[in-house]
Every structure is written in C-alpha cells, then in structure tokens.
Amino acid sequence: MTVGDYQQVFSDQPVMQTGSVQRSPTFSDQSMFPSLDNIPQAASASSRSMATPRSGSSVGDSPERSNKVHKRQRNTEAARRYRQRKVDKLTEVEEALRSMTQERDELRLKLARAEAEAEVLRGMVGKI
C-alpha cells in the first residue's frame, strides 16, 4: 500500500497524481517551509533514490540494478579496507613512537652516565 492509498483511505481531500508519486495537496501546497518550495528537483530526486524497487520493473532494469548493487558492495568493501589500513597505519606509527621514545630515553641515560664519567675523569686529572 502506498502513501497515496493511505491518504485516500484516511483523508477526505483528493489525491493528486504527479509522475509516479501520489501526493495530497494539504502539506505540499500549503508548505510549512517556503524556502524549500524553490527546490522541487531536489525533493523529487531524493524520493526517487529512496524509493523501493517495484515488482513490475522491466527486465532491462535488472542488469543496471545488479551493477549498482555490485558497485555499492565493492565501494563498501573498499571503504572497509581503507579504514582498516588507516587503523593499521596508526598502530604502526604508535609502535614506532613507543620504540623511538624508549631509544631516546636509553640514549639520554647513556649520555648522563658518560657525562658523569667524564666529570670524574676531569676531577682525577685535575688532582695530578
């Protein structure tokens, strides 16, 4: 049952036919959003893209619809792989950061020990 069928059952007002979509004149003709009245193409385009396929569609639409579904599935998989690569790269960079931070800390400690040893040696040389 379509929206137009419900409107016919529950409304006393006539239902107007526009293209393949039925509409009631109550809301669309007395728009609550006047700024949207200037964009009829956007509303019809979005309703077409959101519409469910009809059972009476021709055989010629089937390969096109199949291609669109296949393309959507490939795009979804590609997006999933991209997000996974992004997570993997972030994990790799975080691991490299941990490794370099540890190496930096070890080098700082080694430098402090070398400076302390040099100071001790300078002190010994100064006594001679």
Count of individual beta strands: 2
Low-pLDDT residue intervals, each spanning 5 or more residues: 13-20, 23-31, 42-49
Largest sheet: 2 strands, antiparallel
Counting structural domains, the number is 2
Tell me the quaternary state. single chain
List SSEs in N-to-C order.
HEEHHH
Tell me the distance between the termini: 106 Å
Shape: rod-shaped
Total DSSP helices: 4
Organism: Zasmidium cellare ATCC 36951
InterPro entries: bZIP, bZIP_sf
Region (Disordered): 1-86
Biased composition (Polar residues): 8-33, 41-60
If you had to describe this structure to a student in words, what would you say it looks like?
With 128 residues, this protein is mostly helical. The chain has 2 domains: 1-30, no CATH class; 65-128. It is built from 4 helices and 2 strands, in the order αββααα. It has helices at residues 3-10, 25-29, 40-50, 61-127, and strands at 16-18, 21-23. It has a two-stranded antiparallel ribbon with strand order 1-2. A hairpin with a 2-residue loop joins strand 1 (16-18) and strand 2. The chain is rod-shaped and about 100 Å long. The N and C termini lie far apart (106 Å).
